[in-house]
Amino acid sequence: MNTEVKNYDTQAEQIIETQGYDDHFHDHHHGDKYQSGFFGKYIFSLDHKIIGRQFLITGMIWAIIGAAMSVIFRLQLGFPEADLEWLKPILGKWIIVDNGIGSLSQEFYYALVTMHGTIIVFFVLTAGLSGTFSNLLIPLQIGARDMASPLMNMLSYWFFFLASMVMLFSLFLSTGPFAGGWVAYPPLSALPQASTGSGAGMTLWLISLVLFVVSTLLGGVNYITTVLNLRTKGMSLWRMPLTIWAFFVTAVIGLLSFPVLVAGFLLLMFDRSLGTSFYLSEIFIGGQALDHVGGSPILYQHLFWFLGHPEVYIIILPAMGIVSEVLSVNSRKPIFGYRAMVYSILAIAFLSFIVWAHHMFMAGVNPFLSSIFTIFTLIIAVPSAVKVFNWITTIYKGNFRFNPASLFAIGFVSMFISGGLTGIFLGNSVLDIQLHDTYFVVAHFHIVMGVAAFFGMFSGIYHWFPKMYGRFMNETLGRIHFWGTIIGAYVVFWPMHYLGLFGVPRRYYSFDQFDTFRDFGDINQFITIGAILTFFVQILFVINFFYSIWNGRKMKSKNPYKANTLEWTTPIETGHGNWPGKIPTVTRWPYDYGKDGEDYIPQVIPLKEGEEEH
Amino acid sequence: MEVSMQANKAKNNSVHQYKFALYLGIAGLVMMFAALSSAYMVRQGAGNWLEFRLPNMFYVSTVVILLSSVSLRYCLTSFKNGKKTAYISSLLITCVLGVAFLFTQYAGWMEMYNSGIDLKGNPAGSFVYVLTFLHAFHVLGGIAVLGVALYHCLTLSFKVSKQRILRLELTSIYWHFVDILWIYLLLFFILQR
Predict the structure, then answer these.
(1) Does the beta-carbon distance from B4 to A262 stay under 8 Å?
(2) Cα–Cα distance between A387 and A367 in angstroms, integer?
(3) Core-most of A169, A492, A535, B96, by most CB within 10 Å?
(4) Do the beta carbons of residue A216 and residue A209 sit within 8 Å?
(5) Which residues of B touch A30 (CB under 8 A)?
(6) Which of A28, A233, A302 sits opposite B8 (nearest CB)?
(7) Sign of CA dihedral B35, B41, B42, B44
(8) Closest approach of B117 to chain A, Cα-based (Å)
(9) Nearest-neighbour CA in chain A from B22: distance (Å)
(10) Which band of pLDDT confidence, cut at 50, 70 and 90, is reported for residue B6?
(11) Sign of the C-alpha dihedral, residues A18, A20, A22, A28?
(12) Could you tell me the residue ranges of all domains in chain B?
């Protein structure tokens, strides 16, 4: 270590003043007019940092609702005989009391499973994750005053809010919310009379998701434009932090795949309301033949999964970007294989578009076609393995700082490996004959894109909380949260692999009627207990989060982690426009940790004479 | 204000950020129509597909929307060259042609319906209805944008400024897009029958 004390943070401040780019942002005051007043500042804010926090808190509320739903249906699965009458005040008529024993209504069980999936996939892990961190970090890390279009950015949040309200409203319908699975396959989704939730519940589900897609596209167009147009001087693409690369590619994937989902929904709406037969053919309901002839439900599956598969990368890529950044900062080492990381993000993004039919192996897809999709699916393991290798190599022999953010980042890698390996099983169309629609699938995707993405999100929240609120979250509670969550998550999802290998099907209300599956009651109880405990550990996080906003340890220096990226050159109370004076310019990449015996060299510090860029 | 957020103008990307964002939006819309086109082809490949002649009105509406694009192009160059009368009159013509397109489309749908091609019937017909409805919906958006342009044209004093050129350019990019989209759909329906 260098004995000479160098305060790069004060130096950075001077360098920005002398060498920064002067865009005369603060010369004219109309730039700040929308910051005045409570509504302008906190409600209809145009500031990317506030919008990011709006996404985060809305996402957290949805996460609590979605997780509470899973606890309720886990109670049914683990303790089918238990008396659930105590839930009557919340669930009302969905708890059926018979002989003094309350049980969960079967329709509502399906509604809970459906809503749990929809909420977590779209509202929490898409809007809550990429919405939060793309908004917060893109302008800060590329050196921009704000997004390309702050107005579109605000609309993006409010469309999400509107989508949330419609979905929330559907939970309180007397016929219940949609109950045909989060993938909304026809005919359950196409025929209002197919089940109780298929009527008004499905209508609201569709409206909500179309609003959600509008929100995602408004946000995504903005993220891409901002990254390509508003980077500060010197911030070439190859000097962008991996977080920005990840958010950028995520937005591109979303832009190309969400419209396809809307196309699928459009045909579904026509089938539902205007009597067309795109997805429906020769169906009997209640002994009555319907008029619909000539449609194909497989067509919907193609359109749905053309979004559906890229969607899992929309969820996981931002988490990967966050983890790369957090691991590098906390191991005080440059990220290993920066370019390989970028190329693997791009490779994953490309492959994500040509593997969708692996969700449909058992839906009657041509076996020859299946083999092609199997090959492409398995190839995804290559860029994924490159990333995992690079994360491990980054922390290897690092001067590692253990804090909640870095622990969750390591947890992410652990989860991503565990869940990724089972993906290799499921990607094979032959193994899928046994494994499809079992708890093996549930275990796989919950670990690899559910828990892993949550870990990435937690890591990002703990790491950038000071940037958001100027205070730190409580570290001890953070560590308890981490250990509780990682142990809990494995307790919940690991045993599901065994259930799945034995063929226990997912989405079943109860296994009492099946001799084959009756033996697994103990495992199901074990999983349920794990789920309840994990849920309460998350409550701890929520308490920590809100307590720390007002009472957390104050942030005293601009750059508490000694990190290189530009967001740590902004003032502690980051105002509108991000930098009080000039915009920083950049001459180096963001991963100069431990270079030439220096602990860290922020991106704004110019290259020394004779110094080579990484 | 928006422009001042750019740290180094024209260094990263020679396209104006709003135009770039619009191109991205168009890319999204292209994906939506591509998805419906491929759904059309997949469904067609499954058999039980009705072959029918496209309504003649669709060719009329093609001429109408092509003319509207030409007149909008003329409008933009006139505005840039400061020719006030040509600018106002061509913008008016574009708006009228835009609305006329919707009427000819409506006549086309009626023609289809009267020849026995019902929305609820064979998917071959349903697809044509859905794709043309969706396109008309985007044209409606285009007319709204043209309406804003017309409102600016009639209420603001005539001044060729950078910002006004940009606005008009954005309007015309979108309008040309819905025009090209219609040509694509027409060719698609003719070739994939």
Answers:
(1) no
(2) 31
(3) A492
(4) no
(5) 1
(6) A233
(7) positive
(8) 12
(9) 8
(10) very low
(11) negative
(12) 56-191
Rounded CA-CA distance A30/A209 in Å is 36
Smallest Cβ–Cβ distance between A221 and the set B5, B25, B46 belongs to B25
Query: CB atoms < 10 A from the CB of A539, how many?
Result: 12
CATH T-level fold of B56-191 = Four Helix Bundle (Hemerythrin (Met), subunit A) (1.20.120)
Number of A:B CB contacts under 8 A?
139
Joined together, the tokens standing for residue A88 give 């009557």
Q: From the CB of residue A597, how many other CB atoms can be counted at a distance below 10 Å?
A: 9
- Rounded to 5°, the CA angle A527-A70-A508 comes to 75
Q: Which residues contact A602 (CB under 8 A, 6 or more apart)?
A: A8, A9, A12, A559, A563, A564, A565, A566, A568, A569
Cα separation, A575 vs A596, whole angstroms: 35
Q: CB-based contact (8 Å) between B67 and chain A?
A: no
Q: How far is C-alpha A289 from the chain's CA centre? A: 42
**Considering only CA atoms, which of A211, A119, A210, A204 is closest in space to residue A156?**
A211
Taking domain A35-281+289-600, whether its CATH number is 1.20.210.10 is answered by: yes
Distance CA A64, CA A61 (A): 5
A219-244 pLDDT tens trace: 999 999 999 999 999 999 999 999 99
Single-letter amino acid, residue A405: A
Q: Which residues of A touch B132 (CB under 8 A)?
A: none
Query: Pick from B12, B27, B28: which is nearest to A231 by CB?
Result: B12
For chain B positions 10-49, those within 8 Å of chain A (CB to CB) are 11-13, 15, 17-18, 20-21, 24-25, 27-29, 31-36, 39, 42-43, 46, 48
| Rounded Cα distance, A454 and A414, in Å | 13
Contacts with B20 from chain A: Cβ below 8 Å: 148, 225, 228-229
CB within 8 Å of chain B, chain A residues 27-46: 28, 30-31
Looking at beta carbons, which residues of chain B come within 8 Å of A244?
none
- Chain A, 302 to 341: residues with Cβ < 8 Å from chain B are 302-303, 306
Query: What residue has token string 């449609």?
Result: A295
B110-113: Cβ within 8 A, 24+ apart: B111/B55, B111/B56, B111/B57, B112/B52, B112/B55
* Residue in B with minimal Cα distance to A301: B39
User: Chain centroid to CA B145: how far?
Assistant: 11
- CB nearest A275 (choices: B13, B25, B120): B120
- Is some CB atom of chain A closer than 8 A to the CB atom of B110? no
Residues A69 and A126 sit within 8 Å (Cβ to Cβ): no
| SS3 state at B160 | coil
Yes or no: say if A481 and A537 are a contact pair by the CB < 8 Å rule. yes
Q: CA nearest B90: which of B79, B78, B75, B101?
A: B75
* Token pair belonging to A358: 């692996």
The predicted-structure confidence for A535-593, as pLDDT tens digits, reads as follows 999 999 999 999 999 999 999 989 999 999 999 999 998 888 898 888 999 989 999 99
Express each pLDDT in A384-422 by its tens digit. Answer: 999 999 999 999 999 999 999 999 999 999 999 999 999
Our measurement of the distance from residue A430's CA atom to the centroid of its chain's CA atoms, rounded to an integer in Å, reads 30
CB nearest B32 (choices: A263, A270, A294): A263
Whether A221 and chain B come into contact, CB under 8 Å, resolves to yes
Answer yes or no: pTM beyond 0.90: yes
Instruction: Report ipTM (2 d.p.).
Output: 0.91
**Are the beta carbons of A510 and A64 closer than 8 angstroms?**
no
The predicted pLDDT at position A426 comes to 94
CA angle (A538, A542, A546) in 5-degree steps: 165
Q: What are the φ and ψ backbone dihedral angles of A5, each rounded to 5 degrees?
A: -80, 120
Pairing relationship of beta strands A593-595 and A471-472 according to DSSP bridges: unpaired
